[in-house]
Amino acid sequence: MAVKDIGTHDINKPLLFSGNQAMARGAIEAGVALVTGYPGTPSTYLIEALLKASDLGFRVEWSINEKVAFEVGTGVSWAGLRSLVTMKMSGLNVASDAFLSVQYSGTNGGLVLYVADDPNTYYGMVEQDSRHYARLAAAPMMTPSSPQEALDYTRRAFDLSEQIGRPVMILITTMLANTSESVTLGKIKSIKRKPSFEFNIARYAKAGPAACVQQHKDTLSALEQFGSLTDDLNPLTLTESRIGFITQGITWNYLQEAVHLNNLKPCTLKLGVANPLPKEKIKTLLSKIDTVVVLEELEPIVEETVLALRAEVDHPVKVIGKTHGPLSLTGDYNVDVVISVLHEIYGDKILRPEVSDDLSRQVQALKVKRLNTFCTGCPHRATFYALNQTIEKLGYKKEEVIITGDIGCTILGMNEPFQACWTEICMGSSISLAQGFKYAGIKNPVIATIGDGTFFHSGIPALLNASHSGTNVTIIILDNYWAAMTGMQPHVGTKPYSEDKRIIMIEEIVRAAGIENVRRVNPYQIKRMIPILMEAISSKEISVVISEAECTIQKERRRKTGVSLKVRPEKCVGLDVCEHSCMKVLGCPSIDRGEDGKAFIDPTTCTACGLCHHVCSYGAV
Ligand code: SF4
Ligand code: SF4
Predict the structure, then answer these.
(1) Atom 4, ligand 2: which residue's CA is nearest?
(2) Which residue's alpha carbon is nearest to atom 3 within ligand 2?
(3) Distance, CA 618 to ligand 1 centroid (Å)?
(4) Ligand 2 contact via 611 beta carbon (within 6 Å)
(5) Which of 20, 65, 322, 475 shows its CA 20 to 30 Å from the CA of 37?
(6) How far is the C-alpha of 402 from the C-alpha of 380, rounded, in Å?
(7) What kind of fold does domain 3-230 have according to CATH?
């Protein structure tokens, strides 16, 4: 059965689901009325799975950013219906203002916040541990260890949220989000509720200190209630062993593999809840053992609690973790990490899982060398090529002009061959950072580069701020119509995705911000693009260039033209001789070295964007 059947009522057949898909199914089974969020890998594929499904009977949509998504979800919850809001860990930073406030006000319909952490930063950004947010907001947080648990916990989280009257967080990590297993489905609840909302500013506003303090007290009580309702999610297994393990989330699976391989039977406490921690169970475990290993990725949050509780046990207990032990604060765990800890405790008799040489060879053979650069035919390649050319034509060296970068595909402009973007902080920061550089007194031009999705997400306030201040920066908005980096999600300005929705025009927003020096240009028209950039960067006032061309991947999906460009070998002087070689200057993945040392264009991937034709001064393309 395919993912499009995720809403099936046939629950007799288990389905192969990733952690993300299992959570999506859990929300369906819980009778959710709204699923919304902002794309951010690894969380993206929950909403993607729902969007691929047919006739789910509830609303599923991408929001403009995580804070807005959470607020929309809150409105649904306050009106008595159920909602799920999804985001990656960086998105939780964006949503946190709303999240903390709503946590204090509480919920009516079940409100579940799914956040995906990314230990080892497989997808970039800060390697943060979102469990801190649960503690900060006194928010209940569940940490499933498998796709089956992801489904079961999600379904139950809605009931729990309604029982305690607070949002419930579910945290999974990249490995679990992407791991698949055969999952047993449950029945889909049909929830028909009449939406309603009462006037009650003591709950739904922050109406003075007394109300705020009361909200805080109520939040703490709700958290305690959540702890007693979810005791079964933290199973404690006591054996004859004087060694114990505490696991959180997916680390449970690594421990299981390691102990089964070595036929060990330690005591275990499997934490399915990250907040509140089951302190009595931890104390019971400590009272039965001499050594405890805490397996949790990133911060030593459980470990610190264990260290504090150790003082309440009447005999010494050695705690092995990050504070006193070999486990790392960075990166993710795996079976090898757990085996290394077992070595410390049990000595050399510990076995490692065997990986056959043949399998290792097959894995090595699958590795593909690839530049970390724009896709074949990407319009951003044209923009950054033109930008570098412009800076040179204006008489500056590259290191004399600061170009701030932003989140999304556009940041690939920091890599070879362009090495244009100097910075990457967070969504929308390129514009405000550029303003700051100017405030500091940087005399040379400062240029901000930002993609369309990022501009809508968080760039608009920065644009208004820069315009209001009259700061002379140049802002290049690279508009390819899609949130492309996360897999082509549409946004409020996606033109080929109109359906019944209003398309928001970037140019109109920029002009409404009072900026008059605004130009729209197709970056593939290099001869037109460079003078426009020169004029904008030389301007004595704030200027905006909207570099607009649809993401080639999306365009090609619709058109499937199959047209490509060719190199004429008799004209190509050779990649080693050519002083401005297309391969080096553009880094297009479709340009390769032929056996004769000349450029060769792969006809199966070239999208005929024409950029190499422009670059070649020998007329060879
Ligand atoms: S035309 Fe040239 S630059 Fe454009 S996709 Fe084809 S090979 Fe790459
Ligand atoms: S730019 Fe032209 S001459 Fe130079 S390597 Fe490419 S195809 Fe050959």
Answers:
(1) 581
(2) 572
(3) 16
(4) no
(5) 475
(6) 18
(7) Rossmann fold (3.40.50)
